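During the no-cost extension, the postdoctoral fellow (Dr. R.K.) reprocessed legacy sequence entries with the updated structure-token encoder. One reprocessed record is reproduced below for audit purposes.
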Amino acid sequence: MFEECLYFNSNALARTVSRIWTEAYRQFDLSPPHAFLLRVVLAKPGLLPRELAEELSLSRSTVTRFLDSLEKRDLLIRRPTGKDGRELQVYPTKAAKAMHQALDDTGGRLTKLMGEIIGKNDVSTTVAKLREIQKSLESV
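Re-encoded structure tokens follow.
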């Protein structure tokens, strides 16, 4: 019935993928979106919240909620920039740095698992196509 429905099929896929990623990041007591935000901060310390929002394709308000949550857990800290005290840069804490490699390893294992199940080439082309579609639909 919904074989050609982008909404239905993309959401069905998202639920399945979300279940797998949620289980993988449970060991860190992080949801996948929180883990991804933390991984970006670890890889690029000092980003502004708006830059994180852009990098993760999330709204600023969602990023702010995630930052609040991760800051309460002592995984990151926000510091004013030298230029404008209203702008805040985001940095990982020692606790976050201690889990950096394990977070990246988990992401690598998930990528490898998807390659084994779906096929490495199919994963790459699917992700590239999804990113292209998402970018095309942003302006709608």
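DSSP finds six helices and two strands in the chain. The chain has a mean pLDDT of 95. The remaining legacy entries will be reprocessed before the final report is submitted.
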